[in-house]
Please model this.
Amino acid sequence: MPEIEYKKMDSVRLSADKHSVVIIDQTLLPNELKYLELTSAEQMFEAIKQLRVRGAPAIGIFAGYAMAVLAQSILDEGFLGRLSQLGSYLVSSRPTAVNLSWAVERQLKTAKKAGENARSALIDEAVKIHLEDISTCKAIAENTLSLLHEGDRILTHCNAGALACSRYGTGLGALLLAAERGFKLSAVVDETRPLLQGARLTAYELHNAGIDVTLICDNMAAWLMSNGEIDAVMVGCDRVAANGDTANKIGTLSAAVAAKHFGVPFYVCCPYSTVDTSCRTGADIVVEERDGSELTELYFARRTAPEGIGFRDPSFDVTPAELITAIITERGILRYPYAF
Ligand code: MRU
Model:
């Protein structure tokens, strides 16, 4: 199994010649570490849609670089219109993470402002988005760690580490920072059905960083909480509504409900750019529905359900603000009731 080191690894970067976006294909981990060089809008759309690049902040960083790369081959005539079309196309690949449209809009503003220097300005801005994410994640990790105690057992869901963002990640940041400082925490990782981001990516990243990891199926978390085996839950998120309702990977809501019931603090860790005040509540957040083949076939040697049945495959759920003990951003620790 390949090794990665979160502080040296970029799940998304610009190629040296600035003609492509280079990503780690996250669908192949943990068995294979393969980099892909993406040059066309279609390849970039496919990479987001198929979760080769995934995790809300990483999708934002990717979109920043994608706009910069695509701009290099747009003709001067109608430049802004074409760039805007390509941006809308990328945004249509996945609906829930606000970071995608946030980065595309930021790049469109950059291009407008820079006029004839737009192409080089877009490259600079993409690098800026990336560097900002690195420092933001570190600040989120510091803020989150300030709430934890030595020996805490942390439940996490999906993957909110270096692959999903940069360096420390969001939901995993406190675990990584604690390990660097010799402050002992351990992780209980939900496998995260159906795409197994917890088992494939989080367990892999944390294990590589030397952290004590215990993998469980999602439906075991409430039982562990009832036995007093979890001290806090830490997750990332894809969009925060103005009232603090929070969209994250499907299964997050179940963990939040159980945590509330058993009195376990439930922390959402994210960059402030994930707050979308145009969504008044979680009811305004669009939840992606995916192709049910990931329920029945993707990770199984043999099909696990009969052909021809119906399916539902929502990829995210929305956790009501009142179930969230704190929303932790680079700006500090916010507590319920939230008002953004
Ligand atoms: O479908 P995914 O794998 O992109 O979902 C990712 C999550 O739900 C993460 O928890 C979220 O994007 C936060 S990443 C720091």
